[in-house]
Amino acid sequence: MNDAMHLIVGPGALGRLVALHLAGVAPVTVAGRRTLPAAQTLVTPEGVRRTVPLDMTTLAELPPLAPAYLHLTTKAYDAHAAYESTMARLAGDPILVLWQNGYQVQPELQRRHPGPVLCASTTEGAWLTGDEGVTHAGRGITYLGDLSGHHVERCRELAATLNRAGLTAEAVTDIETRLWHKLAINAAINPLVARYRIRNGQLRDRPFRPMVERVVDEVAAIMAKVGVSPPPAGWHTLVWQVIEGTANNRASMLQDVLAGRPTERDAILGPLLAAAQRHGLDTPCLEALYGYLARGSVTLR
Length: 301
Description:
Layout: E1 6-9, H1 13-22, E2 28-32, E3 39-43, E4 49-53, E5 55-58, E6 69-72, H2 79-87, E7 95-98, H3 105-112, E8 117-122, E9 125-128, E10 133-138, E11 142-145, H4 152-164, E12 169-171, H5 175-196, H6 208-226, H7 235-245, H8 252-259, H9 265-268, H10 270-278, H11 284-295
Parallel strand pairs: 1-2, 1-6, 2-5, 3-10, 6-7, 7-8, 11-12
Antiparallel strand pairs: 3-4, 8-11, 9-10
Helix pairs in contact: 5-6, 5-7, 5-8, 5-11
Family: Belongs to the ketopantoate reductase family.
Function: Catalyzes the NADPH-dependent reduction of ketopantoate into pantoic acid.
Protein name: 2-dehydropantoate 2-reductase
């Protein structure tokens, strides 16, 4: 499916990062709420600038299409609305690829979508540089899988396409576990960098490093209760590896706070706090961070 068409809905940092890479190997259309410049500039982690023409449109002006892939790269809280708006204008049942943080939207949209549904869990780091481009702040890896276990070959095909496009990807059979692992990473990084307005790498320094350790301790206790196995190197090593690899990145939640947008606090912290409550676990750090994101203030001790 080298010439398969990819429709990307959600031209934020991740959406444009994926689009700018895919544009080199496949037809790509990007759709959002408003019109963006067709010439988009990608700044690589090495500082190289590359301007690429993209087919940019809006959901309201999206022509009838029959894409092979529909990538939803919106925030989790926008995913259902974006899915409905897009599917109303599409012919056929594309392969739906979900790039959302957390673990709420994925099973819900799998039940709704009549075609194959793939889930992507990525540690790629990126932030927007205005309407004209995106900075690829840290290279990561994207895991692709489906919750039903019925579309292994589809996952392999998309992983191969992403690798050809320059984004490291791997098809896996344990995507549910990978999504929980990504949830742990997001919970340990995003709320703290949003709270203190810092880049990921600054979490390595005091006073933030002990805060990360305490959050990871709480997350690890929750994961043990819900039956999610830790990665081979352990939860702390996993989180610090991602922080190291995305040290220069402005996490998505920080970008949202700085721009005055809603955050994904419910998608990222919600499942963890709900599980903690079910199992009677004390999670003061996670609760304080959720409180900050809901009300705008927090004190961690």
